[in-house]
Amino acid sequence: MNNTDLLFYDAYEQFYKMTGESGAFESFCREAFGQDFSQDGFSDIRQIDRILNYIPSGEDVHILDAGCGNGKMLGYLQDKTKAYIHGFDYSENAIKAAKKMFQKRADFRQGLIGEIEYPAEQFDLVVSMDSMYFAPDMEKFVLQIMRWLKMDGVLFVGYQEGDVMPKTETSKTTVLAKALDKCKIRYEVEDITRETYELLKKKREAALLYQKDFEEEGNKEWFDLLMIQTDCVTGTYESFAKDMARYIYIVRKTGD
Ligand SMILES: C[S@@+](CC[C@H](N)C(=O)[O-])C[C@H]1O[C@@H](n2cnc3c(N)ncnc32)[C@H](O)[C@@H]1O
After folding, report:
1. Is the Cβ–Cβ distance between 176 and 128 less than 8 Å?
2. Which atom of ligand 1 is nearest to 69's Cα?
3. 75 in Cβ contact with 101 (< 8 Å)
């Protein structure tokens, strides 16, 4: 299949080209999210630090980020834990950048969700922040990840509704929750919609703070996009929560 036929492929190629060049975007990420991981989503440092609780200590620890972008989040997790980091993403620009930045105990691959394969029982943790939505078959992808996990390993998912996925009623009715239920896989879920509303407000303020820098770099279109993405928080929390929700799903691989 021609990559350019894939949903958002060209947009992500441009995005990861821009993140490699733009000082304004780097400053924006630091201000908005607390750390620059070239985020194209909602994962601020509070969410990423929650992941640390699921990384065991020891030498032979392997973690995978599905939809890893340019790998900066994995680089941060490695700094904190010394784990071996693995990541895949369909964006050539993202994976090129990741390979250049992270060479020690690291494996980055260009690949498609649903197609890329890893050996069974390889990972202590699989993380996917704002990327599970792109699975052509959610049940199949969930089962694939469960196969990749070691026993007692954890899948950690940051999952937004009202963006790529339409808003459903609750954390139990999302496409991911339904797929987990269908596969009889138990999960815990935390509703972080309120936190996300505050984060998006911060994201808007940060974009405005660096508006001039974006413009001077010739990156006004990215500033404009940030304004569009955060338009949903110009009203009250109640109106935001009608159309948007954010959850963290934790799935542990158990023997039963
Ligand atoms: C919303 S971004 C999230 C990126 C990063 N995890 C973060 O939190 O900032 C979605 C990521 O998934 C990647 N992606 C989209 N569709 C994909 C697919 N079908 N297969 C693999 N990666 C995909 C994009 O290139 C992008 O890096």
Report:
1. no
2. 27
3. yes
Query: Ligand 1 mean position to 130 CA, how many Å?
Result: 7
201-242 tens-digit pLDDT: 999 999 999 999 999 999 999 999 999 999 999 999 999 999
- Record the pTM: 0.97
Beta strands in the chain (DSSP E): 62-66, 84-89, 106-110, 123-129, 149-161, 188-191, 245-252
**Separation CA 244–CA 237 (nearest Å):** 10
Per-residue confidence at 1, pLDDT binned at 50, 70, 90? very low
pLDDT > 70 in the chain, percent: 98
Domains and CATH numbers, the chain: 3-251 (3.40.50.150)
CB of 67 shorter than 6 A to ligand 1: yes
Q: Is the CB of 131 under 6 A from ligand 1?
A: yes
